Amino acid sequence: MMVKSKGVKVAVSTIYYWIDRGHLGKAEDFLLYPRKKSSKRQRAFS
Q: What single-letter DSSP state applies at residue 1?
């Protein structure tokens, strides 16, 4: 399914991808589903 907004056709799956990746919104406060910050993983051998 395609969604047309402001003359641009975008697939619905793309919108879900943007929401999941945290790209949909101007700032973190405006995001529909803000991502939780994860701690950096440490390597066993560095």
A: -
Dig out the tokens for 33 from the structure: 């589903």
10-residue stretch averages of pLDDT, the chain, 46 residues long:
71 77 62 63 73
Q: Are 21 and 30 spatial neighbours (Cβ–Cβ below 8 Å)? A: no
Do residues 14 and 1 make contact, with C-beta atoms less than 8 angstroms apart? no
Answer for the pair 15, 5: CB distance below 8 angstroms, yes or no.
Answer: no
- For residue 18, being part of any structural domain is answered with yes
C-alpha angle 15/28/40, rounded to 5°?
Answer: 95
Residue with tokens 């993983």: 41
Give the chain's domain count.
1
